[in-house]
Amino acid sequence: MVSLHSSHSVAIVLPGLAFERYNSMTDRDIPSTNNTQSPLDYEEDRPRVKLGGNPGTLIASIPALMGFTPEESLVIVGLYNASTTGRAMRIGPIVRTDLGMRSIAEGVDQIVAVCDTLNEPEVVVIAVSEEEELACGLLSVLGMFFEDNLVGINGLHWVEKIESGAPWCFPDGEMGGVVEDVDDNPLRTIGRCSGALQLKDREERERWLLPTMPRLDTRELLAETPGGKDADEHTDAILAVTRLLSDVVLGHRSLDEVIEDHEALMAVARLAIDEDDHTFLVLCAQGTVNPVMRDMVAECARRTRGSMRIRLLALLSVILASNDEGSLAHFVAAGAADECAARSQRNHHDCLTEEMLEVLLATMRCGHQRQTVRAVVACSLHHLASLTLELSGECAADVVDDAEVEELIEWAEQLDEALDVLEWPAITRALNL
User: Fold this and answer.
1) Domain interval for residue 186
2) What is the pTM of this model?
């Protein structure tokens, strides 16, 4: 059985998060979130949320930030000064690694590389481990390492488990306070409102995309000649998915019903594997409908194998990044890259997917995965514009049969109507990132 597993460090950027001082005389920065632009990825219209001055509140927010509750892990939160005249610290990159030295070295190198591009960078380092000596030793060593690399230390904290009421300590073992409510904090609330996936732990994350049965037979789709479709065939595939999305949004069908429908999943797979149409799945996922598309693509990935599964995982990663689920997006992309590398016989689909994953992982490592989202959305819009022009009669000179011209125009009208289900304000924001 194929297992989506990766030991890669997780590097993500959470747009709009900030550390600010309530009082410039205090000696600790207080985490909060707002919608001010950062030099990293960001998104407008983010609600302003203050997490408070207690590090226990920041620690309690980590499960919401990561999408799961890390155990036996090192979490490094990068900060930078977004102000040119004062001090307005904002959260930039976040890295989670296992406690093995190789994993830590990779994660630390990633965050230092990003911090080198930021103004007045600092870090908060949180060791999550039941082994006090190991955790506190790592914190002490990393504190010196970051200072040697000109990265300021905002906080060094150790906690055995991230759960409500658990004590957190300084590297010397002295208790500093307790972890606040993990299930009731502002970031968890924001995650619920956006439909972000919240997994219990790493084990649940590992199981989330494991292959299931019955398996979809996508051999005919994989065998199609690249570039061999007419405009009406592209439109037919797009219409099938937009109608599914519309049915769920309007309440005509439940999401559970759709993801159990063989034909519905085949419609998603048909778009995903096409060299032009695959970007439309990401376009559909912009805005509040993101969780719907996420679950449809995820179920399709679970029910497929090989080239099709890897392509779906790559697209799922971009869809997750669209909803600021950066940690999970990186996990899925890294797992897809591992599965792609393990294939002994590759085809042209694998080559395109591999290029997608290389770009996506590279932008994730430097905190700019939203650039990939923007590029994919732009490609999809160009593709739709091309289809609309072709269907609306731009190619009529090449068509002898009047009935065929009328059929093309009818396709164009159906496509225009189907696109109403998309959230265009969210698409516009994605393009303006």
Assistant:
1) 10-197
2) 0.78
